[in-house]
Amino acid sequence: MSAFEELGVCPEIIKAVEEDDWLLPTPIQAESIPLILGGGDVCAAAETGSGKTGAFGLPALQIVHESLRAAAQAAVVSMKPNQASRGCTLDEAARDLQICLGDGERCSCADSRGWRGVRGTAPVLAGKYMYEVEILSPGLVRVGWGTRLGKLEIGKDENSFGYGGTGKKSWNGRFEDYGVQFGAGDVVGCLLDRSNPDRGTVSFAVNGRLLGEAFVLPPALRNSALLPAICGKDFDARCRFARLEFPVEGFAPVANLKACDDARCLAGETPGKSSAGVQCLILEPTRDLALQTFNCLKKIGRYLEAPSIRVALCCGGDEREQRGEMAKGPHIVVGTLQKVSSCIHRGVLSVKSLKLLILDEADELVKFDALSEILKIKRAASVGSSRRMQVSLFSATLHTDDVRRAVEALTERPTWVDLKGKVTIPDTVHALICPVFAHEGMPFKSASLGRVEPKTDGIHAPSAALPRHSEQFASQRVKEIKPHLVVALADAFKMETCLVFCRTNLDCDNLELFLTSCGGGRKFAGKAESGKENPYSCVVLAGMRSQEERNRNLAHFKAGDVRFLICTDVAARGIDIHELPFLIMTTLPDDPDLFFHRVGRVGRADRMGLAICLAATSPEQMWFHRCANRGQGCRNTRLVKEGGCTIWYDETACLKAIEDRVGGPLPRMDAGNFSCPGIVDPLGVLGDSAGDNIRKRRPGASSETGEGATRRDASGAPGPVVYGKARNDQNLLSTMKHLQEISGAVSELEILEREMQKQFVTLAARGI
C-alpha cells in the first residue's frame, strides 16, 4: 500500500508521483493533502524545499478530476438509453510488440521466452459484463481484467487480475489455487460485476462452469475503469466480446457496454465545452514559478482520464497562444496575479465555476496592495452562486501582517498547518559565511587574478585611483574582490553546477561578463556536442531578460549545459532545481526571509547542499534607483537622501539580522583556504584525513543524538557528505568507503609514477 494512498490520493496520481521517486509524502504533504481533500480552507507554512507544490498540486488535481467525473456521469445518465454502444476490440495501441492481432478478436504470440499481453478497448466503470476467450493452441494463457495503468502481463501488479491455465489466480504478483486448469479447446469466461459501487468482483468460468468469486476489487480501484486483458507465452486465442458461447445470466457481453457504464463516454467532452469557467485557480508571484508549477501539474496529472484534466498557463508571453488555451476551456489555470486579473476583466477567462483558489508563495503575492485584486477575483467567482469557494495559502512564511490580513479576508475558519516553527536552516544545508576584507587584499588563490579585472557598477572609480583609507576605496575593493572570490570558490570546491545570487540585474550582467571572460571570452550560445566549451559557462535568470531567454537559460542549467546560473531574488523565487549542490550569495539580503528562500534552493529532497554567503566587513555603496526610468542611463551617484540613487549597504547589519532569526552565529570560512573546521576543507589544509578530497565533506560535530545528529561510522568518525546527493545513500557510502580504503595505494602509485618519469627523463638526457 502506497503511503500516499493513506492520505486519500487516487491511484492515477500515485502512479505518476511514484515514477518520479516520490515514495513518501513530506510532512507538509502529509498534513495538507487530507485537509484540502476534505474541503476546508488551509493555511500552510513550511520551509523552502519541503514539497509545498505537491501539497496543493495533488489534491487540486484530484478535486477537479472528481468534480468533472461526477458531472460527466450525470450527463451520461441523461443520454438516451438506446444510444449505440462503442463496442470492443483488441487494442493495437495497448499490446506488446510480439503480439499479432487479427480481425479485432484474434491474438497470437510465437515468443516462448516471456509473457506478452494485449488489452481490449472497452473500459468498464459500472454494471455486469463478461467476455470469453477460446484457447486455440497448447501455449500458456492468462485471462482477466486490468486498468490502463496496469502491466500487460496481467496479475503481476495491483492494477490487474488474472486467471491462468495452470489453475492459478493472480493479483499483485500473488498466485493462489483457483478453479481448474484449462488448455487448447477450452472456452474461459471472464466476468466483472460492478453493479454495487462499494463491492466490485471478478470471477471466471470454464466451458460454462462458474468457478466462483476470484477477486474483490480493492478500494483504490473502485473508480478506475477495467478493460479485458489477455497474456501468455507461445499461444493462440480468440476473444469473444459480442457473441458468447456460454452466456451467464445477468452479465451482458462487454461489446454491448452501455454509455453510462463506459469510461470513454466520460472522456468525450470536446474542447471548449467547459467554457463555463475554470475549476481551480493557482496564483504565483512570478512567471518562472508559474511555469514550474504548470509543468509539475501536467506531470502529476498525466494518468488522469475519463475525463482528462486540461491545465493552462496564464502569465504573459505569446498572447495569441494563451488566448487559444483559454478558449479550449481549461479546468485548472496557473498564472501570475496581474495576467490572470487582466484575462478575467477582458472576459477571456471565466471564474463562474471556480471551486478552489490557491495562493502559492502567499507572502510575496499579497505585497504591494495585491490583496484587493485577489479579493476582486474571489468576488467575481461568487457572483450569483451560493457555493463556498475553498481557499488555500502556502508559503515558507505566513506570519507577516500582510498575510494575516489576507487570511482573514479570504478564508473561513482555516486550518493552520505550521511546520515552519522557528526559522531554521534545513539540516540538509551547510550555510557558511565567507568574509570579504576590503583592506587585506585577496588571501585566496583564483584563476582570474592578474588575468581579468571585473567590471563593477560604476558608482566609484577603480580602487587604485581612490584614497586607501576612504569609505569609497573599501566599497570599490569589495566590488572588485567578490567576482574573483566566486571563481576561487568554484574551483576550490570543483563546483560542476552552482546557483549564484546577485542583488541587481546590473550585477548579474557584470558577473556574467566576468565569468565569460575568465573562460576565454566565448559566451554560451547553446548546448554543444563537446560539453561545456567555456570552463566558467554561465547564463542569467533576471527580470530584465525576456521570458523566452529566461526559460531557455533555466532549461540549459537544469540540463547541465552550463556551470553557473546567475539570478536575482525575484526571478529565482521558488525555482526547484533537482540535486543542486552549491549556491553562492554575492551579497547578503537585507530581508532575512529572502536569505532563507535563497538557502532553500539547495538541500532539497533530502540532498545535501552547500550555501556560501559572501559578506563584506565594511559598508558598500550600491544603486537604489528612485528615478523615473528605474536606472536606465542613470549616473546619479548621490545618496537617496541627497536626491540621488545610491545607498550605503551594511552587510554586517544584514548578517546580524539573519543570525538573530537563526538564533545563533553562522559558521565562518577561512577567507584564504575556504576551510571551516568540522564542516568543509576543500584544499585539505586541516588534515582531517589522508583520504580527504575536494568532493568529500565532513558534517559538523554534534553532541545530540537522533535525527539531527551527525552520522558516524564504526570507528566513531563523522560519515562523509557529498553535496547534491542524499544523506543516507548506501551506494554512495559504500563507494566512499572503498575510495578511502584505496586512497593510500593510489597515493603510493602517484609517487612511483612521478619517480619513474623523473628517472626516464634523466636517463634519456644521458643518452641511455
Automatic annotation (TrEMBL):
Signal sequence extent: none
Classification via Gene3D superfamilies: 2.60.120.920, P-loop containing nucleotide triphosphate hydrolases
Originating organism: Toxoplasma gondii
Ranges for domain DEAD-box RNA helicase Q: 2-30
Pfam families hit by this protein: DEAD, Helicase_C, SPRY
InterPro entries registered for this protein in UniProt: B30.2/SPRY (IPR001870), B30.2/SPRY_sf (IPR043136), ConA-like_dom_sf (IPR013320), DEAD/DEAH_box_helicase_dom (IPR011545), DEAD_box_RNA_helicase (IPR050079), Helicase_ATP-bd (IPR014001), Helicase_C-like (IPR001650), P-loop_NTPase (IPR027417)
SMART domains: DEXDc, HELICc, SPRY
Protein family per UniProt: Belongs to the DEAD box helicase family. DDX1 subfamily.
Region Disordered: start-end pairs: 690-725
Motif (Q motif): 2-30
Protein name according to UniProt: DEAD box protein 1
Domain Helicase ATP-binding: from-to ranges: 266-416
Keywords associated with the record: ATP-binding, Exonuclease, Helicase, Hydrolase, Nuclease, Nucleotide-binding
Domain B30.2/SPRY: 56-248
Entry GO terms, CC: cytosol
Domain Helicase C-terminal: 488-653
Transmembrane feature ranges: none
Alphabetized GO MF terms: ATP binding; exonuclease activity; nucleic acid binding; RNA helicase activity
